[in-house]
Amino acid sequence: MDLIAALRSFVRVAQTGSFSAVATERGVTQPAISRQVSALEDYLGARLVHRSTQAVTLTEEGRELLLPAQRLIDDAEDLPFNVGARRGRPAGRVRIALPVPLGLYLSSHLAPFLASYEGISVDLVLRDGVSNLIEEGLDCEIRLGPLEDSTLVARTIGQTKAYLVASPGYLEQHQPPAHPRDLEQHDCIFYQRWGRENVWWFSTPPAPGDVAGQDLAISVSGRIHSNNAGAVYRAALAGQGIALLSHLLVAEDLAAGRLLHVMPDYPTRRFPIHVVYPSKRSLPPRTRALIDYISGLLEDDPDMAMDAASPVRR
Predict the structure, then answer these.
(1) What is the separation of C-alpha 93 from the centre of its chain, rounded to a whole number of angstroms?
(2) Angle at 292 between CA 81 and CA 278, to 5 degrees
(3) Which of 30, 73, 80, 221 could form a disulfide with 23 if both were Cys (CB 3.0 to 4.6 A apart)?
(4) What is the pLDDT of residue 269?
(5) Per the structure, how many domains does the chain have?
């Protein structure tokens, strides 16, 4: 029996509650994963999981094994880099979930990191929503806005920058909004960012009827919405409506005139960018190295760096 492989399967079964889900991840059959866990039970002389047609749950012995098993897996992955010429260098795979715009940005900026850490590989899981780190086997996740899960360790590494944009064609056919409330008369294209997907936040300038510096929440509507920022971006380029999108997606299009900045006098609300990871597990060096690298990337970008002159809303 390959002990480390069996432990890996056991940990993922514990996290997902499913032999089939782990088999799909690994590209093998469900019985193959079940046999690995059974072999581990025989090796340890203890039942680790309760099997039923509805779910797989851990026994008391399985719960006791979970954290030591994860530590053994981490140690095994780091072992080649604790001896010889590669001694002391972080190694292994890092699974990180990110919002789509930031994930696309990071994918084109990973070369220096991978060159510095030859033993690390990176799995990018791109989604505009919140993940379950344990069930999905994620080492960490980048999240936007206020955090609700108190069981996670969080580190603030930057702040968001988004623009309200539309194509020239759309604005030629529709009266450009002069105030955020005018958006109620427009086709808005929206996706899940933080909070309610159809509520956009703005800061009010000093003008009659508004108090400078206050936040203004506007409920928008439209015929297109998505769970992916990339789809919203393409719909905005095609002239389907007004969208609120990260500067990472639209900066080049704004410069080229393919998109136009709508209502620049009403800056969109900025939110903190956090990296979160499980609090009950020590942070492996490889994960810390990637977090530090991403933090440095954001710090080097004036639109995402933490800046006292541009406070984020917590």
Answers:
(1) 17
(2) 85
(3) 30
(4) 86
(5) 3
Separation of CA 257 from chain center:
29
Alpha helices in 17-110 (DSSP H): 19-26, 30-44, 60-78, 100-107
Strand partners, 189: 243
Which one-letter DSSP state was computed for residue 29? -
Amino acid 4 reads I
Whole-angstrom distance, CA of residue 92 vs CA of residue 78: 7
3-state secondary structure of 142: strand
Of 51-60, 136-145, 240-249, give the lowest mean pLDDT range. Answer: 51-60
The answer to whether 11 and 41 are in contact (CB under 8 A) is no
pTM for the whole structure: 0.71
Q: Give 300's contacts (C-beta < 8 A, 6+ positions apart).
A: none
Rounded Cα distance between 82 and 95, Å, is 21
For residue 20, give the CATH number of its domain. Answer: 1.10.10.10
CA 237 to chain centre: 24
Over residues 231-249, mean pLDDT: 96
pLDDT digits (tens, 9 = 90+) for 246-274: 999 999 999 999 999 999 999 998 888 99
Domain boundary among 33, 59, 80: 80
Same domain, 95 and 133: yes
Conformational region of residue 23, where left means phi above 0, alpha means psi within -120 to 50, and beta covers everything else: alpha
Residue with tokens 């002159």: 309
Owning domain of residue 33: 3-80
Q: What is the DSSP letter of 211?
A: -
Q: Is residue 308 part of a domain?
A: no
User: Residue 212 pLDDT > 60, yes or no?
Assistant: no
